[in-house]
Each structure stands twice: as C-alpha cells, then as structure tokens.
Amino acid sequence: MNSPNDPGALRQPSRDKPRLSLLSFNMQVGVGTKRYREYVTQGWRHVLPSQQVRDNLDRIGELLVGHDIIGLQEIDAGSRRSQYRNQIEHLAEQAGFEYWRVQVNRNLGRVAQHGLGLISRFTPFAVSEHKLPGRLPGRGALIARFGTPDDSLAVVVTHLALGAGSRARQLAAICELVARDEHVVVMGDTNCTAHALIADPALAASGLHVYDRPLPTFPSWRPRRGIDHILTSPSLKIREARAIDAVLSDHLPLHMAVELPDTLHRALEGASP
C-alpha cells in the first residue's frame, strides 16, 4: 500500500491512454477513528463539531486530488456536527473539482444529514437517487451517467446493509437499475467480503466483475477485512487496484484504475469542463 503523498498513488491519469482513476472511501464523516476504543472515547464527534474533524477533512481533500471519479460514503450534507457545511461541497472545492452531488439517506435534522457523495471531474448528463430495500431504512444508491446517452458510463455509489438478507435484496435492486447499461462501475462500502459478493446470485447474473484479490480496508489501523469494493462491467479493464494506506477514517480508501473503450473515453473527455 502506498502513502497518500506518494506520487505513484495519486498521480494524474495519463491522457495518452484511455484510463479512468476511481476512488471509493467510507470517510466516517471525517471522524478519523484510529483504534477500537475511540468508538467510545471519541464517539461524541459523530454528533458535535470538532477541530479534529475539520483538520481531518482537509487531509481527505488532499487525498482526492488526481482521481477522476470519487464515491464517498458516510458523509454529512450539513448539520451541527459538520458546522452546517456540506462536506462534499467542501471537499470538491478544496480538491479543485467542479462537479459534486449528495444523496441524504438519513435525515436527522440538525443532528445529522447522513448519506452518500459523488465528486467528479466530469459532469454527468443524468443523475438519479434511489432508496434501497432492507429491514431498516437509510440505505441508498446514487447513480450518475457520464458521457452521452449513446455511449455512457453508469457509476453507482452505495453503502450496503450489515445483514446478509438485506444486502442481497439491495444488490439485486442495484443490478436491476443498471441492467441496460453496458459500462458500469459500482463503488462503495458493501459490508461484506469479495467471496460473499462473488456468491451473490443477482451479482453473478449481472456479469459485474468482483475484484477478488485481497484488498483489506477495515479497520484502517490494522486492516484485516476487505469490505470496500469497486465492481466493474467486463468492458472496463482493471489495470490497477489497491487500498491506500491513509488512516483518515475507520476504513482505508480504495483506488482502482480502469482502461476504457476508445469510444467511451472520447465521450467522457468531451463531457469534461
């Protein structure tokens, strides 16, 4: 794993090859847990503002530089704990991205605006928000389509349930939402291993590829479980995948570089500002 300050980890993608740099990160609303006991001793930072969270958010912003499309989970869209500032807007502004979008899945008023975030150097031509089925409410999928309607890339940002039954229903719902898309990326905290994803019948039927080499992301200070994933359609060739050694949350960020079909690459570049 590379340091976030390592140019090899966060380089600007080469434009003479049709590659896309993806990043998926459960950012834990910037809390930055570094050991198990902090879930208790620092738990107040999930409901009250702190300088530590503000400083950590700046470090997360530095991490985003050099990527093309970023999916973030456990974000706050503007409540007391984030000093009523949309964290995704702040990160996009800091890292120099013009496009960002938020999906709030748990609206707790002033206490928390909990959800998903998308940051991109491309502007999508269509974006949709979806509630996912499950035993408990609060899970969703944010879908952005980039390029053109005739040659598009569908990017799904999601955070799946802890329970296996709810997770299976959520994966089936996501697969149905992108069933007609040729080029697909699904990124997020799936709360399960690659082995569990490979065994999921809806995902297997969809043809989406699960990167099956071990990429432990949780817990960030001693990663043992790979529960954050970037799934891709067969049309996107994976050229690189790794967890980035940056303890900015209780999860490690996950990076993937994919090679694009030429026509899709041209469509995406034509949509960039």
From TrEMBL:
Keywords: Hydrolase. InterPro entries: Endo/exonu/phosph_ase_sf (IPR036691), Endo/exonuclease/phosphatase (IPR005135), GPI-anchor_lipid_remodeler (IPR051916). Pfam families: Exo_endo_phos. Coiled coil: none annotated. Signal peptide: none annotated. The keyword Iron does not apply. Residues 23-251 form the Endonuclease/exonuclease/phosphatase domain. The keyword Hydrolase applies. GO terms for molecular function: hydrolase activity. This is Metal-dependent hydrolase. It comes from Salinisphaera dokdonensis CL-ES53.
